[in-house]
Amino acid sequence: MVSKKTVNTLLASAVALTIAGGAHTAQAAEKEKCYGVVKAGHNDCANAAKTHSCAGHATVDGDGGEWVTVPEGLCEKLVGGSLEPIEAEADADADMSEEKDG
Questions:
Q1: How far is residue 75's CA from residue 36's CA, in Å, rounded to a whole number?
Q2: How many domains does the chain have?
Q3: 21: in domain
Q4: Distances from the Cα of 40 to the Cαs of 6, 15, 101, in angstroms?
Q5: Percent above pLDDT 90 for the chain
Q6: Please, where are the H alpha helices in the chain?
Q7: Is residue 89 part of a domain?
Q8: pLDDT, tens digit (0-9, with 9 covering 90-100), for 31-48
């Protein structure tokens, strides 16, 4: 036979797990991708250029195409942080010189 104390302990555990699960779901929804602030080797997943599809493959610090997940609202407060991929300056300079030539 199961004691009343055991039943109460099981019920309290179930309630605690339910609350913890709900908090985890809410936290997951409050995240955003932040481009341009990643340290080499510390990106979260594939980059914007789709040259790799794995975490940890960023080759340089601050690559505008690499991202990391941060709490919502933090990204744009970080130096170099952007919610959208940042075009590399070298690519932008090349595009501008093509426009001048054309």
A1: 9
A2: 1
A3: no
A4: 51, 42, 35
A5: 50
A6: 4-29, 89-101
A7: yes
A8: 999 999 999 999 999 999
